[in-house]
Amino acid sequence: MKKGLALDTSSYRLGVAISVGEEVVAEHMTNLKVNHALRLMPAVEALLNEVQMTPNELDYIAVAKGPGSYTGVRMAATSAKTLAWTLNIPLISISTLTMMAQAGKYFNGLVVPIIDARRNTVFASVFKQAAVGKLTVINEEKHQSITELFSLLKETQEPVLFVGDDVTKFKQTIDEALGKRAFYVNSMLASARPGELSLLANNALPEEQVHQFVPEYLRLPEAEVNWQDAKEKRNKR
Question: Where's the Gcp-like domain (predicted)?
């Protein structure tokens, strides 16, 4: 059975998990506004020690590739690439939204993971059960306005489960748009579990080319957008 290490720092949530085959044997999560760079590798080391496993026993490294916090996504991606290259094992990346959606994999309806992208926009995708406990994407992930997302969901008559730490920011708008069709993951249940990330990676193909792998941001950094806007304004003068 394959042994995998999963890393996620795409939000304030830091997650590390170890799986053996289809079983998550260890999982560590925090949700603190503290620098991930100081805590990620110590968390990895502690978890490996807890399950009495050495890095050389790992068969793959899994990483949440985004979207999410630019700095956070880069942190896990860099660490995962370094580990995979050093240990000479596969690097497998999974969308952060896909990982989040697993919190609703037994929901009979649409599952919509949301990450706040500011300025009334979100990173989101739409999933639905293909079989019990198995989700399939019916609308690919993208950066979009919250209005665009709700317009899409209004066209269906199915119940919709919203997933993610940022959902509370839009709850009033969601309720006004969808009414009793809107459901929410219980706040006591983590919406982005590193254990789910590791299990998804266990069955995922193909592996990434370590040196070519880059995170999936779905949009340009705000600083670059502002720079391009300023450049366009200068060119119009």
Answer: 34-227
pTM: 0.91
**pLDDT tens by residue, 10-26:** 999 999 999 999 999 99
Assign a CATH topology to domain 3-95+192-220: Nucleotidyltransferase; domain 5 (3.30.420)
* Cα atoms in the Cβ-side hemisphere of radius 13 Å centred on 17: 29
Residues contacting 136, CB < 8 A, separation 6+: 127, 128, 129, 130
The strand order across the sheet containing 160-163 reads 134-145, 121-131, 110-118, 160-163, 182-184
* Number of other CB atoms surrounding residue 126 within 10 Å: 20
Are 63 and 6 in contact, with CB atoms under 8 Å apart? yes
